[in-house]
Amino acid sequence: MDPHVRIAIAYDSLFPWSKGGGERQYRRFAEEFVAAGHEVTYLTRLQWDEPPVVEGVEIIAVSTDRELYDANGVRTLGPALRYAKGLAQHLRAHRGRYDAVLVAALPTTNVLAVRAALLGTKTALGVDWLEVWRPSQFREYSGFAIGTVASVLQWTAAKLSPVASCHSQMNGRRLKRSGLRSEPVVSPGLIDPKGDIEPQLAVTTPPNVVYVGRHIQDKRVEALPAAIAHARKQIPDLTATIFGEGPSRAAVEAEIDRLGLRDVVRTPGFVSQEELDQGIRTAAVLVNPSQREGYGLVVVEAAAVGTPVVLADAEDNASVELVENGVNGQVAPSAGAADLGEAIVSVVSAGEPLRKSTHDWYLRVSKTNTIQAAARQVLDRLVQAATR
User: Fold this and answer.
1) How high is the pLDDT of residue 146?
2) Within 10 Å of residue 66's Cβ, how many Cβ atoms?
3) How far does Cα 28 stand from its chain's mean position?
4) Closest Cα to residue 358, out of 307, 298, 316, 311?
5) At what angle are helices 144-159 and 109-118 packed, to 10 degrees?
6) DSSP letters of 150-203?
7) Is the Cβ–Cβ distance between 109 and 77 less than 8 Å?
8) d(CA 274, CA 375)
9) Rounded to the nearest 10 degrees, what angle do helices 135-142 and 144-159 cross at?
10) Sheet holding 265-269, edge to edge
């Protein structure tokens, strides 16, 4: 049995008050650490009106910014710096309170703040990397000056990560190239099985394409209408539902109108979880043309109900690691209308046999590639470092 360890998890967002893959991951990590018998504190920012309750976890807000993103869906510098400052102040004021700190390296200013605050203590430090960016990515995202600084900060943070973890082979390779001095923990996956989920193995008509996610530049949602128009040349009754909202939504709507697809493509925005689940379950295919994904949880969520996926190959898209062509979907060579459209046609035309193999794939990987296993791997390294 592991010795009792006092652990702080540091991330500026908490599920469900903020929604996203990282938020869900760190909340589940907190719950798994508690289940393993450890004392857990979650250091985040203020996102609620009523005090939040997560069983067994103490939640402390170290900053008060309600918004992290600008109108274009880009993380802004001010909230990141204020959270890092609040995190450092809290840890300095409570030196010795924690045996280990697990900090999200998003943004990397968190890592620098924690290292500075813990200097001279015996507290073990783990750094979890949701994503590892190429230098040019930073410049494209934030401009040349800020992007260059951010790239240097990432390199510095990698150097300062005694225990490092990530959740794709792509990010593991990038961490090694970024100056990491130890072998990273590459988790088996982040699947969170929800018991016996009833799959939808029968084909529904008319076939419907589904997208789930925010409408921001990196997701390339505006590529979907043209791909659907291309696919309809071979599947005339094909329809689509594009869930979610964001800065790119106007561009998506403009493409729908330009292509005359207003009666074919629905854009209901954010909907209830029940409606979203039903949309994924009955979809012929879930399509995500994103160029940047750190893991790709939506691939797994779709496979759990037998819905295959189409993704677009891209240099920064780790979610393609989850797709076996012809088994649980297909990776298109690009997000171009012809490439994406042909992949949609191929998957939809495969019908029930592909839905069955997609669900079989999920049953296989959900036994081993779980968020529980990932949390345990990270926890073992933290406990080892804290008790060394």
Assistant:
1) 87
2) 9
3) 13
4) 307
5) 40
6) HHHHHHHHHHT-SEEEESSHHHHHHHHHTT--S--EE-S--B---S------SP
7) no
8) 28
9) 140
10) 265-269, 239-243, 208-211, 285-288, 309-312, 329-332
Nearest Cα to Cα of residue 27 among 17, 6, 37: 17
Give me the sign of the Cα torsion angle 190, 193, 194, 198: positive
Sign of the torsion formed by the C-alpha atoms of 151, 152, 155 and 158 = negative
pTM (2 decimals)?
Answer: 0.89
The rounded mean pLDDT for the chain is 94
List % helix, strand, coil for the chain (3-state, nearest 5). 45, 20, 40
First-residue to last-residue Cα distance in the chain? 16
- The span from the CA of 171 to the CA of 167, in Å, is 7
**Tokens linked to 184:** 């990273």
- Is the model's pLDDT at 363 over the cut of 90? yes
DSSP character string of 308-362 = -EEEE--TEEGGGGG--BTTTEEEESSSSHHHHHHHHHHHHHHHHHHHHHHHHHH
Structural domains for the chain: 6-190+370-387 (3.40.50.2000), 208-365 (3.40.50.2000)
Give the chain's radius of gyration (CA, Å).
21
d(CA 339, CA 314): 13
Under 8 Å CB-to-CB from 89, ≥6 apart: which residues?
A: 62, 117
Q: Give the pLDDT of residue 195.
A: 63
Amino acid at 178: S
Q: What is the DSSP letter of 88?
A: H
| DSSP-based three-state secondary structure for 269 | strand
